[in-house]
């Protein structure tokens, strides 16, 4: 079904990392991040090493650094939380630029930021170098149950269709002069969500019937 | 907001991962009962719906906005097993394709926002259904209350996990107060919007709402004849 479609984070390029089998990349990501998470936060040199590893991998992948940095905004709400910790944590206080901050809080914030940032960078690198279809095949090789892989496959395949439908509803509302500003407008938005559910569910039923008429017996053919 | 890598220590992350795997395994068996061989396409489309509905922003006040988590909504619409499956799929895809939520925190995210909201939402919904009159009009309010309760409970579970494997030096009572306080507010939004959304679906296609099946089953077919025919 269909040719390869790049998902929103995918960066098209030809590199050893793009060609590497997806299941190995998933295992490498999981192993790497687990090691990072398990590393005591006082081992500053180790984090420099981890960063060097990621920078090396990104260089091999030929994904521009700016491309990844721009997409690190997913981390922002969490950074805001980490910045708050030194102000509210316990323990002896230290003066930093005229602010009284908790010493252990500063250490916690450093640990959270370092581990979180390394995790996001590593995940972004996987997403940028792996097509959705390869990722699914990789999960299959890692013995993820067949039904779960199928569900993920359908979700990924129809994600753009469903979000596109939501987008068209937004345009339709806006073109009729709707502008959601306060909770009084919730009923309209909730009805959009309801309509989206009905459309998605009915699409699922149509897809199922179309599959049955093509001989679906509960398993997808290898392609 | 998704839990990122490094927020909970490694043993806790692995522990929640094991719980998540077990939950998904149970849900896979249960979903087959709820959807039979339609499971793959329907659960996939519902997962895409949950993902999309999390992108729908609801204005709160003075420029801030929030979005649905959708666990309780999914449970009422498609049944608890399928809902666990759909929300878990959403978190897996978000972690692997969108770098949203850490890969080592995947189990934590599934347990907190997939499993807990869905199961608590469904339990509250079923409990209310036994109390409220068996009418279609009571499905939406029950779903709303279920969604409202599910959010602070998930926040409390997060505090509990934090007590076991938290990495920052915060006082637990402060964290619990802040988390529950904020999430009661978030829960109000979640509850109201879930109730409104379920009401709009019940009005058009009550047969699609899993939580309305018991009510639909007791309704009798009513044949009305016109004056000319009589």
From TrEMBL, chain A:
The keyword Transmembrane appears for this protein: yes
Organism superkingdom: Bacteria
Spans through the membrane: 20-38, 44-65, 72-89, 109-128
Entry's Gene Ontology BP terms: cobalt ion transport
The keyword Membrane is annotated on this UniProt entry: yes
Keywords carried by this UniProt record: Cell membrane, Membrane, Transmembrane, Transmembrane helix
Compartment list: Cell membrane
GO cellular component: ATP-binding cassette (ABC) transporter complex
InterPro entries registered for this protein in UniProt: ABC/ECF_trnsptr_transmembrane, ECF_CbiQ, ECF_transporter_component
Bilayer topology term: Multi-pass membrane protein
Protein name: Cobalt ECF transporter T component CbiQ
Native source species: Nocardioides flavescens
């Amino acid at each position: 079904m269909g040719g390869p479609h790049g998902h929103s984070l995918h960066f098209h390029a030809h590199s050893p990392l793009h060609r590497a089998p997806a299941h190995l990349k998933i295992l490498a990501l999981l192993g790497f991040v687990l090691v990072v998470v398990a590393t005591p936060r006082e081992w500053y040199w180790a984090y420099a090493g981890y960063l060097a590893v990621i920078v090396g991998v990104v260089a091999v992948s030929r994904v521009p650094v700016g491309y990844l940095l721009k997409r690190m905004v997913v981390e922002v709400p969490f950074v805001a939380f980490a910045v708050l910790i030194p102000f509210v944590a316990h323990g002896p206080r230290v003066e930093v630029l005229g602010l009284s901050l908790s010493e252990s809080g500063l250490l916690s914030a450093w640990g959270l930021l370092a581990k979180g940032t390394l995790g996001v960078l590593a995940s972004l690198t996987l997403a940028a170098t792996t097509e959705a279809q390869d990722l699914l095949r990789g999960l299959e090789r890692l013995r993820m149950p067949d039904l779960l892989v199928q569900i993920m496959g359908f979700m990924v395949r129809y994600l753009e269709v469903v979000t596109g439908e939501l987008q068209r509803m937004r345009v339709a509302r806006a073109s009729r002069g709707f502008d959601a500003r306060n909770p009084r407008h919730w009923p309209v938005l909730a009805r959009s969500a309801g309509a989206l559910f009905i459309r998605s569910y009915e699409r699922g039923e149509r897809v199922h019937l179309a599959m049955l008429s093509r001989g679906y017996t509960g398993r997808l053919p290898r392609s | 907001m998704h839990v990122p890598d490094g927020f909970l220590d490694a043993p806790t992350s692995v522990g929640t991962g094991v719980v998540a795997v077990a939950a998904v395994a149970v849900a896979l068996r249960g979903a087959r009962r709820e959807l039979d061989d339609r499971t793959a396409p329907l659960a996939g489309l519902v997962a895409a719906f949950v993902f999309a509905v999390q992108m729908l922003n609801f204005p709160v006040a003075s420029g801030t906005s929030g979005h649905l988590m959708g666990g309780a909504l999914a449970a009422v619409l498609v049944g608890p097993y399928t809902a666990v499956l759909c929300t878990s799929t959403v978190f897996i895809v978000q972690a692997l394709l969108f770098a949203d939520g850490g890969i080592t925190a995947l189990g934590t995210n599934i347990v907190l926002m997939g499993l807990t909201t869905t199961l608590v939402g469904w339990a509250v919904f079923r409990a209310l259904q036994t109390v409220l009159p068996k009418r279609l009009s009571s499905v939406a309010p029950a779903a709303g209350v279920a969604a409202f309760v599910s959010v602070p409970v998930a926040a409390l579970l997060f505090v509990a996990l934090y007590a076991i494997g938290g990495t920052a030096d915060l006082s637990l009572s402060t964290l619990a107060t802040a988390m529950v306080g904020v999430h009661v507010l978030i829960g109000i939004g979640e509850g109201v919007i879930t109730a409104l959304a379920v009401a709009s679906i019940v009005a058009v296609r009550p047969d699609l709402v899993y939580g309305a099946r018991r009510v639909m089953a007791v309704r009798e077919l009513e044949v009305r004849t016109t004056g000319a025919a009589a």
